Amino acid sequence: MIKHLQRRVFTGTALALGLAATLSAWAPAASAQSVADIKKKGELTIGMLVDFPPYGTINSSNQPDGYDADVARLLAKDLGLKLNLVPVTGPNRIPFLLTNKVDLLVASLAVTPERAKQVQFSKPYAAASIVVYGDKKAGIKTAADLKGKRVGVARASTQDVALTAVAPEGTEIRRFDDDASAMQALMSGQVDAIGCSTTVAAQIEKRAPANSFENKFLLRQQVMAVAMRPGQSELLKTVDDFVARNTANGELNKLYRKWLETDLPKLQ
């Protein structure tokens, strides 16, 4: 048992150190830019997830779409700029930002203290609940019940961090490249449950036979914000003003209702 515990602690520590080292390695390449710099280019390049519906997805024309895409379009319009949407993944979205491949991230990026050391966050523009979601037959009601269970999660995601923090010794955490892969693993019986947002859970509900899966317990309530490179105070104020104004006038709520069929949660 001690060996298993040591192995699990070592693995968790190695994962955390590896992610930190990776992000630190990218950090020196980051450069700040002003709103004028972006306007001079004539184009706003925004990174977004396309595997996290309804926040980010690919439409029938094979173009990025979803709530995040609409928020990005509204921001570009507000700045009077052409928009270039760049698909990113959970693991590479911050490196893409820090190596100047994108100007901003509107990529369902949850605000966490760890990430705030790497990027600068705007006021929140969205929120989501992260849950453990699994087979109805799996006896899972609390974190303690994960012992001996196979639980899938998107690698380096908020749900990965939240799940790793509460999973007891003996939990088999299987990490996948994205939410879509974790979903498929659950639906094919490779895992007993997954850590995911309630929006991902809703997608599974639509595809799976009725009464196959259910929410087991809440892992974390998270808010999501636009991310930019550190030291961009002017750009931060511009994006904050955009979020505040479009929250107050109801535009963000319209987009949220369009994609999630519910009102935008009260954000702080």
User: Over the alpha carbons, how many angstroms does the gyration radius reach?
Assistant: 19 Å
Q: So what's the CATH class of the largest domain? A: Alpha Beta
Shape descriptor: globular
Q: What amount of the residues lies in strands?
A: 25-35%
- CATH architectural group of the largest domain: 3-Layer(aba) Sandwich
Average of pLDDT: 89
For the termini, the CA-CA separation is 43 Å
| Major sheet description | 5 strands, mixed
Q: How would you describe the oligomerization state of the chains in this entry?
A: single chain
Number of domains: 2
* SSE class: alpha/beta
User: Can you count the helices?
Assistant: 10
**Helix-strand topology string:** HHEEEHEHEHEEHEHEHEHH
Protein described:
The chain is an alpha/beta fold and 268 residues long. It has two domains: 22-126 and 225-260, D-Maltodextrin-Binding Protein, domain 2 (3-Layer(aba) Sandwich), CATH 3.40.190; 129-221, Periplasmic binding protein-like II (D-Maltodextrin-Binding Protein, domain 2). The chain is built from ten helices and ten strands. It has a five-stranded mixed beta sheet with strand order 8-7-9-6-10, with helices on both faces. The longest helix has 25 residues, at 2-26. The N and C termini lie far apart (43 Å). Mean pLDDT is 89; it is low at 1-28.
